[in-house]
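Sync notes, pocket subgroup
Present: LS, DG
LS reminded everyone that the earlier model was apo-only. Rerun requested with guanosine-5'-triphosphate included. Inputs:
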Amino acid sequence: DNAMSKRKVLLMGKSGAGKTSMRSIIFANYIARDCDRLGPTLEIEHAHVRFLGNMALHLWDCGGQETFMENYMTSQRDQIFKNVQVLIYVFDVESREIDKDYRNYQGCLEALLQNSPAATVFCLIHKMDLVSEENRNKVFQEKVEDIQRITNSTAERLHSSATIECHPSSIWDETLYKAWSAIVYHLVPNVTAMEQKLNQFADIIEADEILLFEKATFLVVAQVSKKEFTDHHRFEKVSNIIKQFKLSCSRMGAQFDSILVRNSEFSAFIDSFTNNTYIMSICDGNISTAAVSMNIKSARKHFE
Ligand code: GTP
């Protein structure tokens, strides 16, 4: 990898599936209710998003209208599917043309396996908010089975293998953050090394948990936990809440610097950390915040 590592990420799926909405919320500070106003993407929109300072995500948002899809598969095939690290394929859970959706997915996967066999595929079953809560899990599992079957048979036919991960998502809740954190986690180089350092740091400050958030998106990019927590959605909830808070601050021309939430059981301290990250430390409720804050300050240089 050179100093500025570029990661090519394809964002595909049928027209109206929600690709541009997701991208705008995660990377361009949109809020969910603004997404109604987004027009269809014509051909491909190239978004270069800087991430963690020296990483550029080159996001190809591929308009999903049928004529564009055909071009991707034919004349633009090699150009689009070469050198891809990640394909994000978005399925509209409420789509009425499931067979066609699956055929298009299969076409994309085939082109990907031929041009970038090492790429990872993330399938997002999107707009899950439209499915009633009691059916969500079942509906999601059914889609995953379909997608897995299609993926396996396509890979077999090409004597190849495909790595895929499926996530449910909706722009209306924190699942969006969970899905994108998984993607970004996969793209960030040296996560393990970073988490080892975080682990040592957690021992030093006696933290129960430490999270690192990427500054612009507030996605979790590294994490260590020293004890079991019961809420398995806490990371993406925090991402979602802090991102909203950050946006309301900026609408009033303010910027937030640090946040402290504490009660007798725990203290949660969010502070800007390196150039490109915020840190959140979860400690015992009695711990001195001044001490935590000072330790964070002195740890900074080891993480830059
Ligand atoms: P093309 O650009 O034509 O390929 O479409 P797209 O996939 O980029 O879809 P877009 O992001 O423009 O979203 C289409 C519509 O879906 C918009 O009106 C969004 O508000 C809506 N939408 C996006 N995500 C969600 C979601 O999670 N839930 C619900 N209910 N609606 C969503």
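DG: Residues 13, 15-21, 35-36, 38, 40-41, 63-65, 126-127, 129-130, 170-172 surround guanosine-5'-triphosphate (CB under 6 Å).
LS: The radius of gyration is 20 Å.
Action: DG to write up.
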